[in-house]
Each structure stands twice: as structure tokens, then as C-alpha cells.
Amino acid sequence: MSNWSRVRRILAALSAIAVVCLALAAAAPDEDFATLVKRLQAEKPRFAKRQQALLAERYDLVDRPAKGTVMSGGKPVQEGVRVRLPKGMTWERLAGLSPEEIKERGLWPAGFLPLPHPHHEVGGMVFPQFLIDETKRQTGRDLTRFDLAFDLPDHFLPEFPAPIYLTTRPDLGDVSQGKLVTLSNYYTLFKDILNPKQLEGLRLLVTPFPQQQFNATEDRRSLLASQGVACFDCHSNGHTNASTHTVGDIRPNDHRHRIDTPTLRGVNIQRLFGSQRALKSVEDFTEFEQRGAYFDGIPADATRKGTNPLERGSQVQFMAEFQELLDFPPAPKLNVFGKLIAAKASERELRGQGIFFGKGQCVACHAPPYYTDNLMHNLKVERFYKEVTINGLTASADGPIKTFPLRGIKDSPPYLHDGRLLTLEDTVEFFNLVLELKLNEQEKKDLVAFMRVL
């Protein structure tokens, strides 16, 4: 083993020890709850300022909706490349450089580096304010954290509350009636649509269970002792509201990725679950989330704070059955094979489809009709930049990531597994560089137009 390898292992071990020490300090017996709240509330503005400075440096955050394009429920889609380039650089010039040149000259755009959690050293579930407000209005639960807040502007997030489409009742269209489904209204909304087993699965998905930051212990991060968090607090209406977290199964802490909550729409056609865990069924995913991810992967905390082992043969199966009813939004321009109906598509969309299946090589991973291959791929993005630590996150190698479906993709910003890409235009620029495609400006615009109709 080289000296450098030994140094890196020692640093990793020290980082892990530091995380444990921080956790122990947070729960130290000589610091009562009132003192903990006072200390963390005092620190909150400093970390919020740090994160907002990072976002402003990386992105153009202005509210700039695209003309004539909205999500399935009507919320405007943001347009344009928002990732900022290094001074004096253009996308065309950057695409003309090799990965080695980009890395050596430090030209990889900061917005294409992994995105840290709002307070990466602490991590944990964080919810957008609109979800906090509506959940409190309906149920009285408060998902506010006194130590930190969500970071991305609302106009870059999915619509809320999102429409719900069911594979079993496509004739009904959106069955949410424009409401956020919670424990207070799920029965009224679905009693005549679901069978008893499916209805019980939905009940469990909207039932709060103790979670690392939201529980009854005195090292929680909610002011009041909390009932906990429900699956549909992150996956609102079976979709996503872009709530974030850090993965619970990777160590040391600085290498734990931020998670952008994925949509549950279309889980019935997926064969891998979790962006990197490659769980093989939605039942596995459901059980892991409640047992592991809820407590940041720390079983001892789960035991102390109120773990709720779900019965695999009934409860987990009921929850999975409902999730597998969640359908993609309608795509009226696509035929049964998932390709454009020429008579309904614009020239730009048709050209974009040609790029998708040709020069863009998108189809290599995103095959129709659902635009996924149900595999994992390692993009090896680290070949473009040198390892760097950003706000507590070490940006190194991401490793293999599952291929997420692109059906309904315009409804699910931000993009990539950690939400580092705010728009579809950002996504096209990212893959144009990573895959070395050499797309021109018109080809990029056409590709975005095609993805918006999937």
C-alpha cells in the first residue's frame, strides 16, 4: 500500500470518528434540549448563508419559465442553461476540450460537481416550505427543522400538490382532486377507487413513523416532540417534492451523497430501486427506507428513537401494491411504442427524437417506451475534475447510478441523483460533455423539446 493510500485511509477513519463525535456531542447528557435548540438556531444562519452563496456561485437562479411548456398539473417549466461557466469560457469551446484538459485547467463547471446537502455535515431530511405549510394545515404535524432549512428556490421544484394517475383507472385522469393526500383525507379521496388492501397500503404510506430528525427524543431537530415522517412527506402524492436527505448507507460522512427524492410514478416498470443500492423490488425499497434510511443508517438510533418494523408479508406488501399503481402522466404525442406520432409532433420535437436515437446516444440507456434500461451505469465524471471538498461534501467519484425513466421527466426537476442539474437544458449540456457528443446549439434545443413531450 502506498503512503498516499495510507494517508487517505487514515483521513477517512478520522472523518468517520468526527461524525460519531458530532452525533454524541449533539446528544451529550450535559446539554439539555433547550440548550441544544439555542445553539443550533444560532448556527443556522451561518450555514444557510454558506449554502446560498454556493448556489448563487454555481447557478443562475432567476425565475424564467419556458413559453408554452408546463408540467402535467400546469406549473411552468423553467428554461435555459442555469449552470455558470468559468469566466471567459463558452459551452462550445468547453466541449472541444478533452476530459484531461478540462481537469488539468480546472474548467469543469462548478454546477456539474456533486451538490452538497443544505448542511452536509449534519444531513437528514429537509422539506420545502410549501410541504411544511400544507402538512401542518391539514394534520397539525410540523416538519420544520430548527437547525436548517431547504435550499433550492420553489420555481425549480416539482408542482405541488402533484396530480396522481393510476394504472388501474386511466379513465379518471388526476385522482388527487388537486389536494395533497394525507392521513386526514386519503380515505375520502380513495375509498371508491381502491380495494381494501390497496387502501391500507396508502394509509401506511401517509402514516408518520419516527425518524432520525423527527421523533420524541431530546436530540431531535423539531421543536415539538414529533410523530415522525410519512413516506408521502417526501413522495408527495406518489410523486416528489424534491425533499432532500443524505444516503444512509455510505461512509465516511463527507462521501455520503445528497439525495434528490425520485418520483414513484412508474415504479411498476422498474427493476432497480435506490439510486445506487440496486434493491431488486419495491418491497425491498419500502422496507429499507423505513428501517434504514429513516435513521441515517444507524440501527442503534432506530432502536432508541422508535423504529417501526413493518411486517413483510402484509404491511410492506400492501404499501408496495399501492405504489405499483402509480402511473406516468399522459403523453398524448407518443404512440404505443413510446415514439412520437408524426402528425401531433412539431418539427423541432421530431428532430429532437432523431438526436435522441442517433447522435445523442441517449437511447443506449433510456430505451422506449418508458425510456430506461433498468440497469446501472458509471459515467466516470471524476475524469473531468480533481477531488475537492465543498461545504462538507467531498466531490470524488459518484460510482454507478441507476438509469431513471425519462417518461414524464419535465415534471421532476431538479435532475441527476443529487439534484445538481436544475433544468433539462443543464442536463443536455452535462451529458454533451460527459459523453463527448459534440452536439451543436440547435441539436441541444431540439433534444430538450423532445424530452419535454415524453
Please give a structural write-up.
The structure is a single chain. This protein has 454 residues and is mainly alpha-helical. The protein has a domain at 65-116 and 332-451: Cytochrome Bc1 Complex, Chain D, domain 2 (Orthogonal Bundle), CATH 1.10.760. It is 34% helix and 6% strand. The protein contains 14 helices and 8 strands. It has helices at residues 3-26, 33-58, 91-95, 99-105, 129-139, 186-190, 196-205, 231-234, 282-291, 299-305, 312-323, 347-357, 424-434, 441-451, and strands at 65-70, 76-78, 244-246, 258-260, 376-377, 388-390, 393-395, 401-402. It has a two-stranded antiparallel ribbon with strand order 1-2. A two-stranded antiparallel ribbon has the order 3-4. Helix 9 crosses helix 11. The N and C termini lie far apart (50 Å). Residues 1-28 have low confidence and may be disordered.
